[in-house]
Specification:
The protein is of the alpha/beta class. It is built from 7 helices and 6 strands, in the order βααβαβαααβαββ. Helix content is 38%, strand content 17%. The protein starts with a strand and ends in a 15-residue tail after the last strand. The mean pLDDT is 97.
């Protein structure tokens, strides 16, 4: 069995400004850095991490790096773990998306599993990329505990996989909060959830996505 700790990145500058970041490479805020510190301490107190991977985007990579630095380990960056390629949505505020791309964005808000980012990926394409990348990591790390610094939508994808929820029904799975911990297990080709969107360690610094995401 492989245990995979999915650590969502701390609050980013895009999160704070209400911007759809997608694959924009944005930094963590001061709050995000504090969240990453608290999340790292929780992970170190509860798990023996054997290997660390992350999306190569700064907000996810730097969140996982806090754990790596304390263990004197490296973070292995993987481009396939990036957030969805949002195409024309990247860099626009969620409020603007509701106006400029009202039809397409309304699908994202109400039926995300069937959404398509104009000029970017469909959620189905994106999900296939994420499942492939994380399954590869699992197969390479039999009997280990692996940490992955990652984004909100990829975690939502893996929640669907673990719960046998079709990607088309992703709307039934809620978003996870910043720097929350979701632990999944891979055993003989099957996925299971051990811990889901745990964020009690964040305390007063807890943040989440705004309503129109």
């Amino acid at each position: 069995m492989v245990r995979i700790i999915l650590e969502r990145h701390g609050q980013s500058c895009a999160n704070k400004k209400g911007i759809f970041a997608g694959q924009l490479d944005v930094e963590l805020t001061e709050t995000g850095e504090k969240q990453a510190d608290l999340s790292a301490q929780y992970i170190l107190n509860n798990y023996k991490v054997d290997k660390i991977y992350a999306s190569d985007l700064k907000r996810a990579y730097n969140t996982a790096k806090v754990v790596a630095d304390r263990l004197d380990m490296e973070v292995i960056p993987i481009k396939k773990l990036r957030e969805i390629n949002a195409g024309k949505w990247d860099g626009k505020t969620f409020d603007d998306l509701e106006v400029i791309f009202d039809k397409e964005y309304s699908v994202w808000l109400t039926d995300i599993g069937r959404a398509e980012c104009p000029g970017g990926e469909t959620v189905k394409q994106f999900s296939e990329r994420i499942i492939s990348a994380i399954t590869d990591i699992a197969k390479e790390n039999e009997d280990k505990t692996v940490l992955i610094g990652i984004h909100a939508t990829p975690i939502r994808v893996m929640q669907c996989v673990c719960k046998n929820v079709p990607i088309e029904d992703m709307k039934t799975v809620p978003w996870v909060t910043n720097a929350s911990i979701t632990v999944i297990n891979y055993d003989n080709g099957k996925w299971f959830i051990e811990l889901e969107s745990y964020d009690e360690h964040i305390g007063e610094f807890k943040t989440k996505l705004q309503a129109n995401v």
